[in-house]
Specification:
single chain; alpha+beta; 2 domains; two-stranded antiparallel ribbon; 15 helices; about 55% helix; about 20% strand
């Protein structure tokens, strides 16, 4: 205990120098933690948006559908399958869809699209597309023409607005081309421009009427879970129930999302290590100055019987205390800032178009978990211990008699 008390008092003997080191550690950790929190928040939002707006936690198809999105590859008895899936623990909502490639045309131009024929009410429980309506409504307007929901990007490309007519060209069940007239009832806009451009939404019954598609069939079943952690067990359960079908979790539907998450974890620790290495050199320099200034004092301590182990421990504790005080303030400031901005968000509206082009939201909610703070603290302690070795070894080389005479 005496060594701990002496080491603590020693770091405050030169308050200015110690405060400079503590401030450097505090600001360095705050900067890197806040930057990592912003990056983590962006990746988490990307994954969450992809799950809740685009792919859900799990999707079921015929195996052939994954290679050819044709109406030919459809599942039978979908209502029965939905009921079975809904009874599985962990499943929050289920919605079947009819998906197909088609051509959307207006008087101005045309574009290739992906039709998502849905049950509007069931789809609300699985995806949040209805929350991203910027103009019009979510299949609430009725009229002579069937309603269609298009993205803001596609509406601009087709030069269509609310009430505009869009002709859908798609293959009929008989093999012939079918043409259907739809009227834009709503325009949506998510944070992912890549997803928005080709995807349009219509009612199942309207697509069935146009294509002669059989009632009770669907090309896709989307499943939303209570918690993302339940993805693997529920996927295994579904694969056992439907062995002839393709049951894919979000990790396999969009493997880049899992890669992003893994890459961000690795990048976070890589950046932290760079900061810690820079911090180590600063601490070594400071402790070397402290040791050289106290040559006579350390010599006297060794002369009166303090063994080398205690001298080494004293220098090491001084180094650790310096690092940990800076780490404490760095964590406190970072945690408060991350919590505040995580609640209110950081708006990068000036770069919104660029963010959305890569599927990210311009409103970012920084996020950092407790285990990262713990891991960082452990790394700081290890860095401080390593940083103390050279100054401590330098102190141990002092000859007590020569050290005492040096400042005499």
């Amino acid at each position: 205990m005496m060594i701990i008390s002496v080491a603590w008092r020693n770091i405050w003997r030169n308050k200015l120098r110690s405060l400079v080191v503590i401030l450097a550690v505090t600001l360095g950790l705050f900067g890197i933690l806040f930057m990592i929190a912003i990056s983590n928040g962006m990746v988490e939002q990307k994954i969450d948006a992809s799950i809740h707006n685009e792919i859900s936690h799990i999707q079921i198809h015929l195996p052939e559908f994954m290679q050819d999105q044709s109406l030919v590859f459809s599942m039978d008895s979908v209502k029965q399958m939905e009921d079975e899936i809904s009874s599985i623990p962990g499943v929050k909502a289920v919605s079947s869809r009819i998906k197909a490639l088609a051509m959307a045309s207006t008087a101005a131009t045309g574009a290739g699209v992906i039709i998502n024929a849905i049950d509007p009410e069931k789809e609300k429980a699985v995806s949040k597309i209805y929350q991203f309506i910027t103009e019009g409504d979510y299949f609430e307007t009725t009229g002579r023409s069937a309603p269609i929901l298009v993205s803001k990007k596609l509406s601009t490309k087709l030069k269509a607005k609310i009430g505009s007519k869009i002709v859908i060209t798609i293959q009929h069940a008989s093999g012939e081309l079918a043409y259907g007239l739809f009227r834009v009832s709503g325009i949506y806009k998510t944070s992912n421009a890549i997803y928005d451009e080709p995807n349009i939404f219509v009612k199942k019954d309207d697509l069935i009427s146009l294509t002669g598609y059989e009632q009770g069939k669907a090309s896709e079943i989307a499943i939303l879970l209570d918690n993302v952690d339940q993805t693997d067990p529920v996927t295994d359960n579904l694969r056992a129930k439907f062995p002839s079908l393709s049951v894919l979790p979000w990790k396999e539907l969009e493997p880049i999302l899992l890669a992003l998450s893994s890459m961000m974890d690795q990048m976070s620790y890589f950046l932290l290590i760079i900061i810690l290495v820079a911090m180590a050199f600063g601490i070594i320099n400071t402790m070397m100055m402290a040791v050289l200034e106290r040559t006579r004092e350390i010599g006297m301590l060794m002369a009166v019987g303090m063994n080398k182990r205690k001298v080494f421990l004293m220098i090491m504790l001084e180094t650790v205390f310096l690092a940990m005080v800076g780490t404490f303030f760095g964590i406190v400031i970072s945690a408060v800032t991350i919590h505040f901005t995580g609640m209110n968000g950081l708006n990068f509206a000036a770069w919104a178009e660029g963010y959305e082009a890569f599927g990210y939201s311009a409103l970012v909610y920084p996020s950092l978990y407790l285990d990262f703070y713990i891991g960082m603290t452990v790394l700081v302690i290890i860095t401080a211990i390593i940083s103390s070795i050279y100054p401590a070894r330098k102190a141990l080389r002092f000859n007590p008699a020569a050290a005492i005479r040096e400042d005499a």
